[in-house]
Write a structure and sequence with these properties.
Elements lengths: L1 H20 L9 H19 L3 H10 L11 H25 L6 H18 L8 H11 L8 H29 L13 H24 L7 H10 L4 H26 L5 H18 L4 H17 L8 H26 L2 H13 L8
Helix pairs in contact: 2-3, 2-7, 2-11, 3-7, 4-5, 4-6, 4-7, 5-6, 5-8, 6-9, 8-9, 8-13, 9-10, 9-13, 10-12, 10-13, 11-12
Length: 363
């Protein structure tokens, strides 16, 4: 009996390794990652040129809007991107304003996560979904901004988003000429569980992850809810588990790459070029294997957070903090995924949510 159990365990372990190591096929052209690197990298180069890399970092965050380019006709593509640009700017503005009211940080981010998740699910926004909207809000909430600087920083991010829309327009013209896009599909009938219930659960666990980060007095607490959100978005519990393992293992390997980068004599130009190269590699790999992409996501996010003060801290302390943030967020995200895909949890909590919601709006 023990031998049979051992064989079953070996078979399960082999299936798990195969599942985690599977590399998906992709027809993504190299021009798309290149344009994505330009959208987030050109603001960094401009910031380096004017000796204000911190301004370039804010604008490069708006450049992430390019990643929401849908594979649709150009007219629909540009309307969708401009809506995403407005949403990114609004989320960042709310995050920056909540910075001045520390007691409202967790409720505000929870509210933003719920609202953005509802909108993204109602309009069936493809990957990366609500991730970058909430990341912009979280980073804005912990940015050292003074009151009079709020319009400046919101404007910087908005300009970065508009630059991304411009790059997306030229890329869209090229892509449409290469291959005719499929017609725009009508929106599916939105259900209460998919739009409202799931969004409330996701927002709730994002808020819980941030509350835990604040309770532990982490220096960069906003990376915890970002890691939580990246994991909890899985379409199934299997997908949530796979993404959690990919993110933790990928982050662990990526920390070695980050350590190598941080030991180099980096200046504003080399940081900008390194972030552009990392963005290109990430967008090339993320549709094939999330774990491989996470290896390069780690140094990119570290440079995004620490580029303004490189050389003023210990690389080992930065890497340890980043690993702890990722593990904590991924664990909370896994717990949220378990609840999200639990029929019993959905039945019990769903009844309570329906009592306080306008259930006539969605079936």
């Amino acid at each position: 009996m023990s031998w049979r159990r051992w064989e079953r365990f070996q078979a399960l372990l082999r299936r798990e390794v195969v599942q985690l190591a599977t590399v998906n096929a992709s027809d993504r052209r190299w021009q798309m990652p290149f344009c994505a690197a330009l959208a987030s990298g050109l603001p960094l180069l401009l910031g380096a040129w004017f000796d204000h890399l911190e301004y370039g970092l804010v604008s490069s965050l708006g450049g992430l809007v390019f990643l929401y380019s849908p594979d649709t006709p150009l007219s629909h593509r540009m309307v969708s991107l401009m809506a995403c640009a407005f949403g990114m700017s609004a989320c960042y503005a709310l995050g920056v304003m909540s910075h001045f009211f520390p007691l409202l940080l967790v409720p505000m981010l929870t509210f933003i996560a719920i609202l953005v998740s509802m909108v993204c699910r109602f309009y069936v926004l493809g990957p990366p979904g609500s991730l970058f909207f909430i990341m912009a809000a979280a980073i804005g909430a912990y940015s050292p901004v003074e009151v009079l600087q709020v319009p400046l920083f919101v404007g910087l991010l908005t300009m970065g988003a508009l630059l991304a829309c411009l790059i997306a327009f030229f890329y869209g013209v090229y892509a449409v000429r290469r291959q005719a896009p499929p017609p725009v599909r009508p929106l599916p009938w939105a259900t209460f569980d998919f739009v409202v219930f799931d969004s409330i659960v996701i927002g709730g666990f994002v808020g819980i992850s941030l509350a835990l980060a604040q309770a532990l007095q982490l220096e960069r607490p906003y990376w915890v809810p970002v890691s939580c959100l990246a994991v909890i978005h899985g379409a199934s519990l299997r997908a949530v588990w796979t993404k959690q393992v990919h993110r933790i293992v990928g982050t662990g390997v990526g920390l070695l790459l980050s350590w190598g980068l941080l030991t180099l004599p980096l200046d504003k130009w080399s940081v900008s070029l390194a972030m552009m190269l990392l963005a290109f590699v990430i967008e090339t790999l993320v549709v094939r294997h999330y774990g491989l992409a996470a290896v390069f996501i780690t140094p990119l996010t570290i440079l995004l957070a620490e580029a303004g003060r490189l050389g003023h801290g210990s690389p080992e302390a930065i890497l340890q903090a980043r690993l702890f943030d990722t593990v904590l967020g991924a664990v909370v995200g896994l717990l949220g995924g378990v609840c999200l895909h639990s029929p019993r949890f959905r039945a019990v909590l769903g009844r309570q949510i329906r009592r306080f919601s306008p259930s006539r709006l969605l079936p």
